[in-house]
Specification:
2 copies of one chain form a homodimer.
Chain A lengths: L3 H11 L3 H9 L3 E5 L4 E3 L7 E7 L2 E7 L2 E8 L18 E4 L3 E7 H9 L2 H27 L2 H17 L8 E3 L4 H8 L3 H13 L3 E4 L2 E4 L2 H7 L20
Antiparallel strand pairs in A: 1-7, 2-6, 3-7, 4-5, 4-6, 8-10, 9-10
Helix pairs in contact in A: 1-4, 5-6, 5-7, 6-7
The structure holds a DNA duplex.
Keywords (chains A, B): DNA-binding, Transcription, Transcription regulation
Organism (chains A, B): Bradyrhizobium guangdongense
Pfam family, one (chains A, B): HTH_Crp_2
Chain lengths: 244, 244
DNA sequence: CGCCGTGTTGAAGTGCATCAAGCCATGTGG
DNA sequence: CCACATGGCTTGATGCACTTCAACACGGCG
């Protein structure tokens, strides 16, 4: 199993043992590269492996009511299809947002390792629980906020998640997002997305040019978005000590 | 661990062994009753137990942008706070929709049993993955559909989930939902919810009087909602055989 | 009885979608 | 090197889905 970021995260989340860490590091994997728009997995497929995002971004998406809805965005260190270990069929399309690199680990190999370590099983289980927690935030976001707060919240979340793997210092990060993709994740049209971005610029909350996104006046932005990073700070939490 | 429905479901989902089944049945639990609106767990709490819904309905909710957003609805057989095993802090409020009964099992007891059975660990893990899958459907629903399709989809989902525990035959089920609660889950106002229900009645798709909800012309309804129960049919799927 | 929760209805306002067009940078082929 | 296509951003005009406010009807209940 590759990527120091994933291992570091599992460590932070669940405090895995030295032994387990070694097992992860010994896992065989293969690297795959994707270009913008490439499809990593299709709905209906039954993958025989899971992947870890090494660099770049993936998104999970599907056509709903003639609109492309993005249900998740995955950043380096994430395992977008970890659930296929237990639910064999891909529910939605997995797509590379810009260029990306992933590491692929076979199910059988993963199962072997997990069968031999309750600690790792729990660590991976927790990973999927954090994803569920993120989904609940998205439900709140789409159900209750209007465009400005919605976009602000999503950007805050992405910045926070990138921060925890060292890809966002302070307030700016690099990502190949288009306004269209963020619009599809926020459930609004591209046109209105554009107007919302302009409003955020006008208020001095955002600088987004090309592939660099900068969150300005971050506390104001987070207040506007009602963003509370607690749901992500299961990372680095002191709770890990009392867990098992 | 109580409730035949939960055990039957775990069995169907993951094909647990006779041994594991016995372990579940031997778990000690206590029963709690709640009335409409009672709060089962508060945000910020660190419960020392998990619960199983025995009868009635719970919902997970939170105030977002001055609106109460319902993020999940739990039916008999569900474990609304299973995630507290790994993520100690409740993120949102858990609330009884009508009258309800739950069984409470302590974390320590659950952990003991899970530590002794990889099969059960995987079965419970799968439960949380199904919840995540339901959350993704909600994201699609809130992000892409307008009111009519949204309400239709939610009602189809609830009927299907109730069906899998024998609480919905054919097309009608009993539930203490108000239009207001479904509105809060669908991210629309009560007024518009009411008009949407009337439109569904007008089209002969729905009969909802008091606590009895009847889905009429179900195939038309499911088509309108683009409802595909596959995401719930991990239940009773043949895939369980090739799983582990 | 009077109250309260739920459902229902109308009127007015708004956040957002949709359509349509134009802009700019980048890339590609003749 | 220009002609042209392409993808992303931007802008204006129009329409609609939905919200909000306000009022009323109905039944259950203390």
């Amino acid at each position: 199993m590759p990527h120091r970021k994933l291992i570091a995260r599992l460590q932070a989340i669940s405090g895995i043992s030295h032994d387990d860490r070694a097992k992860l590091e010994r896992m065989p994997y293969t690297i795959k590269n994707f270009a913008k728009g490439d499809i990593v997995a299709r709905p209906g497929e039954r993958p025989l492996s899971c992947c870890v995002v090494l660099s770049g971004f993936l998104c999970r998406q599907r056509i709903v009511a003639s609109r492309n809805q993005v249900t998740s965005i995955y950043v380096p260190g994430d395992m977008p299809d970890l659930h296929t270990l237990h639910m064999p069929v891909m529910d939605r399309e997995l797509c590379s947002v810009g260029d990306s690199t992933i590491a692929v680990v076979t199910h059988s190999c993963l199962r072997n390792v997990l069968a031999g370590s309750a600690g790792l099983t729990n660590a991976f289980w927790r990973e999927t629980l954090i994803q569920a927690e993120i989904h609940r935030e998205w439900v709140d976001n789409l159900g209750s906020r209007e465009a400005l707060g919605r976009v602000a919240h999503l950007l805050c979340e992405i910045a926070a998640r990138l921060g925890s793997v060292g890809l966002c210092k302070e307030k700016s990060f690099v990502a190949p997002f288009t306004q269209g993709i963020i619009a599809q994740a926020c459930g609004i049209s591209v046109v209105h997305m554009n107007r919302t971005v302009q409003e955020m610029r006008r208020q001095g909350l955002l600088d987004w040019r090309g592939h660099t996104i900068e969150l300005l006046r971050r506390t104001d932005l987070e207040e506007l978005a009602e963003f509370n990073p607690a749901y992500l700070h299961v990372l680095n939490s002191p709770e890990k000590l009392v867990l098992l």
